Prior knowledge:
By secondary structure, the protein is an all-beta fold. The chain is 2% helix and 45% strand.
Amino acid sequence: MPDEHLSRRPQFKQDRHRPLYHFLPPAHWMNDPNGLIQWQGEVHLFYQHNPHGPLWGTIHWGHAVSRDLVHWQDLPLALAPSPGGPDKDGCWSGCAIEHEGQCVLFYTGDFPQVQCMATSDDMITWHKYTQNPVIAAPPPVLDVVGTPWDLRDPWVWREGNFWNMMLGSGLKDQGGAVLLYQSTDLIHWTFVQPILTGRLAPDGAVWECPNLFSLNERDVLLISEQPESRHTYYLVGDYVDHQFIPSVQGKTDYGPYFYAALTLLDDRQHRLMWGWLKEGRTLDAQRNSGWSGVMSLPRVLTVRSDGRLGMAPAPELEILRHKSVLVENLTLTPGGGQPLARMNGDCLEILLEGRAVENTRFEILLRCSP
């Protein structure tokens, strides 16, 4: 597999626009986080990756590992398209689980969209299931949209005697859908029913990258929606009898650049979330720079007392702190100058507490120089 680009990080040291403490590949294209798993004390991050260039295409699974969520070690590519196989046109998003001492990856092959499986004993060498795909088509009882169909991004968990798999999809005249399957052996899957259907944006047609988990005695469903492709939505509610009943809906971010979020429950019982930070640069700028896309910083999720999703930077990020500056008891007025003018740099952590007088607002402007 083409891992020669793993040595290319040093060539970007002079790129002043390349992030320094967010994870991104050694070079080239990145999109969705995949297969988050904690294995023998280390967190493994897989991600959608084109190892051949800085634009989307020939999607593989990149792979990195960390002991502290801050410093990451690049590992060889985990998955690559197999010529003539069910993933010949790309190894699309999915998840990772532990089963009988092995790490098991589930991912979407294309084209058409089918669900595949791969395993590893050492987290380096991966073996695709010889009879992939494990799910070859959507349920015939459903009118699934797409050409030939949209059915992707498996999310797998154990519940009692069954393994459960959720897939993102879309149903004609209904909008997006999350479909539930069950299995006793991770190989033979039976369709159960949609756990939720609908639209989160007015033109919502297909849901993708579903995550379902319990948090603070509530259930949370994360969904990213096509064709909008601008937000990860969260739904807080109750998952009962294979149906999700939402009570609160929101967006993880109001800006249009955080997408395809995926979560991990670590050994401290923190629910951690990463997302793909999409590009705001032009295609030419991405092509000329040699890289595209960044992984978000990890966030610790909670459900707040008002039922909404709470988020905070993972505490491990505090090891990045160095020099600190304290400014307090400021009253800001229009035209009152720049009270933070003596602070500079482009790798900063800002902890801000403030109170706005009624019908006013205050702002922090970053990187404002030409």
